[in-house]
Records
---
Amino acid sequence: GAEITARNIDNLSQHFPMCMAHLHRSLRRDSHLRHFGRLQYMLFLKGIGLNLEESLIFWRSSFNKITDDTFNKEYRYNVRYSYGDVGGDSNRRSGGHSPYSCQKILTEHAPGPGDAHGCPYRHFSMENLTSLLRASGVTDPQVLHGVKEDKESQKYHMACNRVFEHLHRKELKRAKDDGVMTAAQLETIVHPNEYFKRSYLLKN
Ligand code: SF4
């Protein structure tokens, strides 16, 4: 599989759940993400194995409309803080912040206008969610209908897992036929980093 480096993130984003795919697209479109978007995405990337050095390269090159000086003043510290490279003793000892679970993303800091963080299954209108899904290769009317029903009954994880199963149907079938599916792989995904890990393993 591809190495987890700053320049491979575009390629690796094929394995991202919709929350992170949307953050990645927004970052590429705007060359910027607002505070909670940066946190949610930065910690997710840390969780997939992007180290501090590569993370600094990634954020510096992604925020490509600002000067080095602005980046160093306004953003560098936060990246280092997230990795536990600076901050108080307890932040250093704990290695910074942990990546956010779906539960946290679904319930804390609901996004407002202009924000790109949150969970699309919960925080997007059905229309915007459908566009995002279509752009990510989910066009099957039955799957889209299932997502709509999940969303209406507030089963956001179900929608996310439904999309995962759809996007990986060939790989999942092969793994099942080969008898290599473990119990853990059949459990519902409740963390964006678990989504990535499973997708990456199935497709590599
Ligand atoms: Fe992301 Fe979790 Fe929402 Fe899926 S259910 S899009 S992994 S926050």
Note: The radius of gyration is 17 Å.
---
Amino acid sequence: QDRVMLITGASSGIGAATARAAAREGHRLILAARSTERLDTLARELGPEKVMTVTLDVTSLAAQQAMVEQALERFGRIDAVFANAGRGGSPGGFSGADHEAWRDMILTNIYGVGLTVQATLPALRRSRGHMLLTGSAAGRATIPGSMYGATKWAVTGIGYNLREELRGSGIRVTLIEPGMVDTPFFDEPPEHALEPRDIANAVIYAVNQPAHVDINEILVRPTPPVE
Ligand code: NJP
């Protein structure tokens, strides 16, 4: 039977590339984000019979629980969850950043990931499935003035602490930690960046391991340009 993967932040960038890669691997998919139109376009591309789209904001637990309920009704199981939705903050550092943008980012990147974990864990316990979280190279490094980096340190912490909570459950936890990736995350295309599919490849590598292999973290950075 085809495996079932749920992806948040699936409407663009890394999430959409992972949906494409997982579809090629034969996964059935639950794709969630706020943009119905972009999700529906992706579902048409991948084949609607194997894809369920859910328009939601990850900061709503009720919406995420309803998504899981619908997914179980349609597919009967969830084998992998990629908690990937996230956003950047605003420039200005700790002294000058827009605090409203901070609040939205903290809610999405930390609280939203926590809610995805909470909403999907009952299904993953039944399937002895796989939880993957999009952290960041910024969740390991010191970046002056970056509240965004701080939210990704929190995602690193969620991954480590969740793995301990789930010890003995058979559920694997993988932190996917991208460096710079060329996605709509940036207003201008960044130079010397990875492609979204480079990160999708890391997700597929982790989920394709046999059950006794727990890939804890994958840090992927672009190769520095040749001088
Ligand atoms: O960016 P983008 P990425 N509720 O903007 C969704 C991390 N990362 O693929 O809701 C639900 O193309 C949004 O969809 P929509 C980054 O922190 C990136 O680069 O329709 N969904 C879209 O599908 C993030 O965690 C880089 O607007 C929400 C998706 O999230 C992840 O990679 C480096 C939402 C964002 O896709 C994917 O970002 C790195 C909400 N409240 C980590 N808010 C990089 N690009 O360089 C947003 O280390 N979304």
Note: The pocket of NJP is lined by residues 8-15, 33-35, 38, 57-59, 84-87, 108, 112, 134, 136-138, 178, 180-181, 183-185 (CB under 6 Å).
